[in-house]
Amino acid sequence: MTITNSDVLLSIEDVTKRFPGVVALDTVSFDVRRGEVLGLLGENGAGKSTILKIISGAQLPDAGTIIWDGKPVTISSPQAAQALGIVTIYQEFNLVPTLSVAENIFIGREPLHFGRFVDWARMRSDAAAITKRIGLTIDPDSLVSDLSVAEQQMVEIARALSIKARLIIMDEPTSALSGAEVDRLIGIVRTLRSEGVAVMFVTHRLEEAMALCDRVTILRDGKLAANLDRGELSIPVFIEKMVGREASNLYKRPASRRSAGEIRLSIRGLKSIVTGERRHGTVLRGIDLDVRAGEILGIAGLVGAGRTELARAIFGADLKTYERFTIDGHEVNIRSPRDAMKHGIGLVPEDRKQQALFLQLAIRRNFSVASLDRFMKLGIFVDEAKEAAEVQRFKTMMNVRMTGPEQLISNLSGGNQQKIVLSRWLSLDPKILIVDEPTRGIDIAAKAEVHEILDTLAGRGIAVVVISSELPEVMAVADRIVTMREGRLTGELSPEEATQEKLMSLMALDSAKSA
Amino acid sequence: MSDTMQAKGPSGEAMVWKAIGRFAPLIFLVVLMLIFSILEPKFLNPTNLFNVMRQISITGLIALGMTFVILTAGIDLSVGSILAVSGMVAAAVAKGSLGNTLSLGEDEAVGYGPYAAMAASIAIGILCGYIQGYSITLLKVPPFVVTLGGLSIFRGLTLWFSNGGPISGFESDYRWWGQGMIGPVPVPVLIFLVAAILCHIVLRHTRYGRHVYAVGGNPEAARLSGLAVDRIILSVYMIVGFFAGLAGFVLSARLNSSEAVAGIGYELTVIASVVIGGTSLFGGAGSIAGTVVGATLIGVLVNGLVLNNVSSYIQSVVIGLIIITAVAFDRFVKTRKRA
Asked: How far is CA B339 from CA A407, B1, B65, in A?
């Protein structure tokens, strides 16, 4: 490599960050050079967001040095990062929706008359000049809440430019954009580069990294997996470095496999409609899926592929349309989670805290919230003794580490909380259990236990659907793996034929292009 | 953190803070009563204590219902207006007319009697709650806005219905519900205590009560656990409507008059009782016992200040300070509990 020191804008040297129980970053080093686009790749949990937080001042590293423009610096706050010229554009934008484009661009740095009064004319004209530079044709007076997601992103970029940012970090900037909008963003990033602004581009989409980046840094399990120069960039190399060779031995597959039973859930032409801030419209674009009794079906896909939406659509949590939806051969109409439960479907959602737990309540109450009908006496009263006994039964069965049924669920570790959520559904004897990210945020030992539990359930004849962004996990627990990309199923593999490379290509590559 | 570390449970100090947090309103109530009894021995007189209880029984009844609403992270600002409209309907039913016929003697009664009046009053309260709950769940208008509208609408209806004036003068069977005594215990106090016990049982020991806590604690998790979240939210507004209606009847009986301006500002005392009692405005945590203590605390405070000749203006100031102190203390304890 023939780079002189003056080419390097930001240098990360042996940065380490530990969280309780995990090393999120382990002596990671890489450089960002002036006026280049550096891609940052890695699977979920590889440490990408931790390094972003450290560079943008949201967290301090435990060890290591950060050198900015030749001088060692401590980036102690987002303000400090901004003062250096580092601006981060997160997936969730930092805009005030009720203010105008111009106000958002200059928020906190409004041009003033006499040091007190906002100079509106100058603010508008400055805003117009900056937005024009990145090809955003929009009235500086329009409200941010009236803009599309892509336009809001442009406003963030405009703000970064107005701060005279020298490094702009973009976290998954394309995840919420349509094809044409992505092309436009890529154009803007190239403009920034030609103006000498360095861009760090975090993405899951390998083709984009290929098309846009001058160099690529890849993280895996908190360690640096590769720093690739322009000549070394290729999608197979990305995949190889992201998944690593040794990762496939992370989990052990149980020795004996079951034989799957009859088709339990059969779906044809499933589409779902989601109304939300970031994603709006049709998310699932026609899914055909069969799940058999006694099998574990693994669903693999990148963030935004529609995995969670598929789970929610089956469970009746989102609106959906379909051609056929049968359970054990009978047509069923599931329009709410209540309906789903009546038909024997359970869902362990991906975000435990937001979607599954009642943090103010005791373990006992968290356990039985869905199944109180089973613990009634005299018709209306809850039989708390029976309830507590049932919690104890599941505690033993699942090896939950807790002091007693009255302990607050918030005092349990993630793994034990997850076991309680699983118990909640198991106490209802489901026919179909969908588990979204079964082991997110729980330690390795508990992960293995959860995998064992899932295996036991399938052994009892439950049709289990496991959604996970961890490929080794999917490969370890599933009897059959399907991959998703952009709301469609893109392939099906048996665990024997599945490799992380094969799965990653099905998940991350546009099949039309790679075929 | 490892599993073994977390399974040990909270530290000793945290346990103490937990206990203090849980019983803080009660401890404060006892301390307050001690202070007042030293300052003015008449305070502990049973007659005075029952007087205090009678004072709080009306807002206390509504506070029981409000506890359900606040447990779901909702709010009902319209309770004072519901009380007025229900009380007015009760009076009209009892008298069989809208006229203000003070002179009406018992033998002249042409209405439908106290029981029909009570039933009508409660039915109107539930109906008001149903309309509001329906707007909240179906139209997705925030409870604050819906019930702020309700506050104005129900008051306006009362004034229109009664032409602004009171309907007064009821037969003794009617008045008994507000003025009567069973032994030494005033009837409104008895109604309040019986209702409190029932509410406590419902919230603590029935499936419905459990669901109320769950919906308030995490509505999304409740929905994904198959709970009929909208139906539960609708029901809590009907419950507070029920109590506002019942309170409207009892107040009318106690005053021997239904006033169009009855209950103005009651929502503040009611919400204060619930909040001082430790129920979280964010939902999911709180209890009826807390609300009873909270309501009593306000009653004791007002009574004690009156006995000590403190200006009624200052009473408002003190109640306001107590509300803020109670919540600030709660927050303080919560941070200690985690230690």
From this structure: 16, 15, 34
Nearest to B333 by CA among B10, B3, B9: B10
Residues in contact with B100: Cβ distance below 8 Å, sequence separation at least 6, in sequence order: B165, B166, B167, B168
Test B207 with A424 for CB contact under 8 angstroms: no
- Each residue's pLDDT tens digit, A231-269: 888 888 888 888 775 444 456 666 556 777 899 999 999
Lookup: tokens for B69: 């609403």
Q: Which helix (H) or strand (E) holds A466?
A: strand A463-468
Residue B3 within any structural domain of the chain = no
Domains of chain A from N-terminus onward: 9-244 (3.40.50.300), 294-319+338-514 (3.40.50.300)
User: Can you name the residues that pair with A272 across neighbouring β-strands?
Assistant: A284, A320
Candidates B3, B18, B200, B232, partner chain A, best to mutate (most A CBs within 10 A): B3
CATH of the domain at B315: 1.10.3470
- Is B4 part of the contact surface with chain A (CB cutoff 8 Å)? yes
Residue A249: CB partners within 8 Å, gap ≥ 6? none
Query: pLDDT tens digits for B108-128?
Result: 556 788 999 999 999 999 999
Task: Give the burial class of A10: count Cβ atoms within 10 A of its Cβ; 0-12 exposed, 13-18 middle, 19 or more buried.
Answer: buried
Closest partner residue to A21 (CB to CB) among B1, B208, B218 is B1
Question: How is B157-169 classified by DSSP, letter by letter?
Answer: HHHHHHTTS-EE-
State yes or no: pLDDT of A511 exceeds 70. no
